[in-house]
Amino acid sequence: MRLDKFLKVSRLIKRRTLAKEVCDGGGVEVNRRPAKAGTEVKPGDVITLKLGNRWQTIEILATPENIPADRAKEIYRVLAEGRDDTGNA
Fold first, then answer.
1. Which pTM does this prediction carry?
2. Distance, CA of 4 to CA of 20 (rounded, Å)
């Protein structure tokens, strides 16, 4: 499955076009390598997603074509998350 589609199906990013922009802008790594929207992902891959000053690292558990919104969190597991605060106001 394409990375941008996984991010949309998992509801980590709400729209596929936004997922593509984030990926192509360098905000996503797959298995510690920078990834573009078309990167193929599979169960077991680890994604680090950076949005603004927030980041989240997840492991893919499944790659269904579609899943109900209330079950979206079942296809990944959060490994770590945090904020990159610089201390500047």
1. 0.89
2. 5
Q: Which fold has domain 3-83?
A: 3.10.290
Task: Give residue for tokens 């969190």.
Answer: 73
Instruction: List pLDDT tens digits, range 18-63.
Output: 999 999 999 999 999 999 999 999 999 999 999 889 999 999 999 9
φ and ψ at 17, to 5 degrees?
A: -65, -40
Which pairs with CB-CB distance under 8 Å and at least 24 residues apart come from 32-40?
Answer: 35/3, 36/3, 37/2, 37/3, 37/4, 38/2, 38/3, 38/4, 39/2, 39/3, 40/1, 40/2, 40/3
Side chain identity, residue 28: V
HSE (side-chain half, CA atoms, 13 Å) at 17: 0
